[in-house]
Specification:
Blueprint lengths: L4 H10 L11 E5 L6 H11 L6 E4 L7 H11 L4 E3 L5 H4 L2 H8 L3 E4 L4 H8 L3 H11 L3 E5 L1 H4 L21 E4 L11 H7 L4 E5 L4 E5 L2 E5 L3 E5 L6 E4 L3 E3 L4 E2 L4
Parallel strand pairs: 1-5, 2-3, 2-4, 4-5, 6-7
Antiparallel strand pairs: 1-8, 7-10, 8-9, 9-12, 10-11, 12-13
Length: 249
C-alpha cells in the first residue's frame, strides 16, 4: 500500500477530488455525547429560531426516540415533527416526506448509521434533505447522525455510502472519548480522495460551502492521505477546498 500511495494521491488530485459542504445551507456535525448550549444555539440560529419547523429523524436508534425528542425539546425546540420509518417504500413516498417541504432544520439523533443508510439512501427522503439544504436550511446530527452526512459511511458494516451532504469525506465520532484516533487512518490511506474528520463528544463543526468552523469544548481531528492527523479546537476554521487551516483570523 505504501508503494501505491503516491500514485493514489496523484490520481486524487488529477481527477479533482474536492470536499465541500452545501452552497446555500448549513451542516452542524456533532461528535456525540451531551450536546452543549453553544451547539444547540448555533443549530437553532441557522434554522431561523427555536420556533421554526424542525424535523427529528431518530431512525438510527428508534428505541430511544422518546429520549431524543425530549433532548431537543429541552434544548428549546417548540415546533417539532418526528419522521421515522424502516420501510424504504414509505421513505420514498410523498406522504412521508411532506413535513420536510416546509422544514427549516432537520436533526439526526444517534445510534447506528447503517439504519439510516438502509432506510433512506436513494429515496425521496434523501432527495428532500438535499433540497432543504439547497433552500438554505440546516441539517444537524450527532454520533451516527454525524457519520451519515459524509460520503463514505464509517462504521456502516457492508454499507459504505453516506448521504454526501459533505462530499468526499469520512466522518468519525466519539473520537477521544472512545480512543478512536487511529480509526480513520486506514480508511484515508485506502481512499486518498477523502478528507477524514474525527469529532470528539460535545464538539461540532459548522459547515457552509468550502469552510467549516469548530465549536464546543473538545477537539476535531483532520486526516489526509500521506500526512499525520492533527487537531483543531473551538474557533478554528478549515478550508475544505484547500484542505488547510484558515489562518489570519
Amino acid at each position: 500500500m505504501k508503494r501505491c500511495l503516491p500514485m493514489l494521491l496523484f490520481l486524487a488530485v488529477a481527477f479533482g477530488a474536492a470536499t465541500h459542504g452545501p452552497d446555500h445551507g448549513w451542516l452542524v456535525i456533532i461528535g456525540g455525547g451531551q450536546i452543549g448550549p453553544e451547539v444547540w444555539d448555533r443549530f437553532f440560529a441557522l434554522a431561523g429560531g427555536k420556533d421554526q419547523p424542525i424535523v427529528l429523524i431518530p431512525t438510527a436508534n428508534d428505541a430511544h426516540q422518546d429520549k431524543a425528542l425530549e433532548t431537543i425539546r429541552q434544548a428549546g425546540a417548540t415546533n417539532l415533527t418526528v419522521l421515522h420509518t424502516r420501510d424504504r417504500k414509505m421513505a420514498d413516498s410523498e406522504a412521508f416526506v411532506a413535513p420536510l417541504h416546509n422544514a427549516r432544520g432537520v436533526y439526526f439523533s444517534g445510534g447506528w448509521q447503517r439504519r439510516l443508510a438502509d432506510a433512506y439512501l436513494g429515496t425521496r427522503t434523501e432527495r428532500e434533505l438535499h433540497a432543504l439544504l439547497d433552500r438554505g436550511g440546516v441539517i444537524g446530527g450527532s454520533s451516527a447522525g454525524a457519520s451519515i452526512m459524509g460520503s463514505f459511511l464509517v462504521g456502516g458494516g457492508s454499507r459504505i455510502k453516506g448521504m454526501g451532504f459533505l462530499t468526499d469525506s469520512a466522518i468519525n465520532q466519539h473520537l477521544l472519548t472512545r480512543h478512536r484516533e487511529q480509526r480513520l487512518v486506514p480508511v484515508i490511506n485506502q481512499r486518498p480522495q477523502l478528507l477524514g474528520i474525527g469529532l470528539d463528544e460535545r464538539t461540532a463543526i459548522v459547515v457552509h460551502g468550502s469552510q467549516f468552523e469548530v465549536i464546543g469544548p473538545s477537539k476535531v481531528a483532520i486526516y489526509t492521505a500521506g500526512h499525520p492527523y492533527y487537531f483543531l479546537q473551538a474557533g478554528d476554521r478549515f478550508d475544505l477546498a484547500k484542505r488547510a487551516v484558515v489562518t489570519g483570523r
